[in-house]
Design goal:
The protein has a seven-stranded mixed β-sheet with strand order 3-4-5-2-1-8-9. The chain has a two-stranded antiparallel ribbon with strand order 6-7. A two-stranded parallel ribbon has the order 10-11. A hairpin with a 6-residue loop joins strand 3 and strand 4. By secondary structure, it is of the alpha+beta class. The N and C termini lie far apart (about 70 Å).
Length: about 450
């Protein structure tokens, strides 16, 4: 019985990176022997065990055979006569098909170390094409290692997998698992770009794929192309270290622009409203949690209004907060502000960058939210005893009045609200204003 460290741990050690997880392959033994040694079986489809003390995963060396479509269409053979090389041959990329013995010997039958040196993703064998998840995994690795390129023969194989329909067998859970990990990498745009290059993006996320080739006004979007803008905004979210709900919302925020009739280009009026059902559809397909869905939908629907904050009446601002459930869940609304910031600053060409554009809307909305939340709902409810149906209306009105007073005194520099004819939050349009969508009426 021999034990080897395999996969990503070996790869990261060679690259000098911190090792995230360690996986082990055990050669020359049986399931019964592993259990006799105290290892706890956890694998359903093939023999995987947890070490009795460290709880790290140990898998028996195995081979596999394709028996049906998708990543579940395999049968596995694990036995003492399966060699380490046979086990490594079934892996996806050469950089993941290396092993390290206990005495430090590197076993590299497929040239993984050389490919790491040359910064190349290369498939181990034609068996790569049997598992569509490997397209997503490679794309995710591209987001983690943005200076790596894909071997031409590997890209050709990925394109063949898409054309043959193999990628259509992917299930929502695995798509979301890989996408969510890829979005949290250093340069998440590369995952989407690799998927687009091989054709998988069009099959899995046609709504996102439709954004490329759709122009926007150059005055506000120096990159012009909507797909390029989405990737810039996504990478900006990673640069800021924003969490997954923000990055996912950024990815979907402009889907409505993909449905703008060409004769209206480069403007995209009401694209926020048109994007909402598209965002909802993707969230249903991926079966994401309600939190991810809600933040993505709110960002899609409200990012234009948030940018136009100082043009909105106080009543409209409070209604926006109500739609976003900001009084009960202010942390979610702050995620929407983060995503809107990424939309504003993810705009760049070879000569112009918007990354340093000011985002005063954040301070404005934080202040509006604080003022509106400061209204004592309990006192209003107590005063309205016997008129329960009227409480929401009165509370809403009190919040609007509080916001109006704050806007007049803080931003317009006037006295109390009763000294001006009307409480409006109206100032000159801020620099981030874009004519690509008209203000929504409420």
């Amino acid at each position: 019985m021999k034990i080897y460290t395999v996969g990503g741990a070996v790869r990261d050690m060679i690259l000098g990176l911190p090792v995230r997880d360690r996986d082990y392959v055990v050669v020359g033994t049986t399931t019964d022997m592993m259990q006799l040694l105290g290892f706890q079986p956890v694998g359903k489809d093939f023999p995987v065990f947890l070490h009795p003390e460290t709880k790290e995963e140990y898998a028996l060396a195995r081979t596999e055979r394709k028996t049906g479509p998708g990543y579940k269409g395999f049968t596995f053979h694990a036995a003492p006569d399966v060699t380490l090389e046979e086990d490594l041959e079934r892996r996806d990329l050469t950089m993941n098909a290396m092993a390290l013995s206990k005495d430090g010997e590197l076993i590299d039958p497929f040239g993984g170390q050389e490919d790491l040196k040359n910064r190349v993703f290369r498939h181990v064998s034609p068996a790569f094409a049997e598992d569509p998840v490997r397209i997503l995994r490679l794309a995710r690795f591209a987001a983690r290692f943005p200076d790596f390129t894909i071997a031409p023969e590997t890209m050709d194989l990925m394109k063949q997998m898409v054309q043959s329909g193999e990628v259509d067998a992917l299930v929502p859970e695995r798509i979301w698992q890989e996408l969510s990990q890829g979005l949290m990498e250093n340069q998440p745009s590369r995952m989407l770009l690799i998927m687009r290059e091989c054709g998988a993006l069009e099959r899995i996320f046609p709504e996102i794929n439709a954004l490329w080739g759709v122009p926007q006004p150059e005055q506000w979007h120096p990159e012009i192309d909507t797909g390029v803008h989405t990737m810039l905004a996504l990478d900006y979210s990673a640069k800021q270290g924003y969490p997954l709900p923000v990055r996912f919302a950024v990815l979907l925020h402009d889907l409505g622009k993909g449905t703008t009739p060409p004769h209206q280009w480069p403007h995209h009026r009401a694209h926020e409203e048109r994007g909402v059902p598209l965002t909802q559809a993707i969230c249903r397909r991926l079966r994401v949690s309600n939190m991810y869905r809600d933040i993505a939908v709110m960002t899609t629907r409200e990012h234009g209004n948030i940018r136009r904050s100082r043009e909105l009446r106080s009543k409209t601002a409070v209604m926006l907060l109500e739609r976003c459930d900001a009084f009960r869940r202010p942390e979610r609304f702050r995620y929407v502000l983060d995503a809107t910031e990424c939309d504003l600053r993810g705009r760049k060409s070879e000569t112009v960058s918007k990354e340093d554009t000011e985002f005063p809307q954040r301070e404005y909305w934080e202040r509006v939210l604080d003022v509106a939340r400061s209204v004592d709902a309990g006192s209003i409810a107590q005063a309205m005893e016997g008129e329960m149906d009227e409480i929401p209306r009165v509370l809403h009105r009190a919040r609007v009045d509080a916001v109006a007073d704050m806007v007049i005194e803080t931003y317009l520099g006037l006295g109390p609200r009763d000294k001006v004819p009307e409480a409006k939050a109206v100032t000159p349009v801020d620099e981030s204003h874009s004519p690509e969508a008209a203000p929504q009426s409420h």
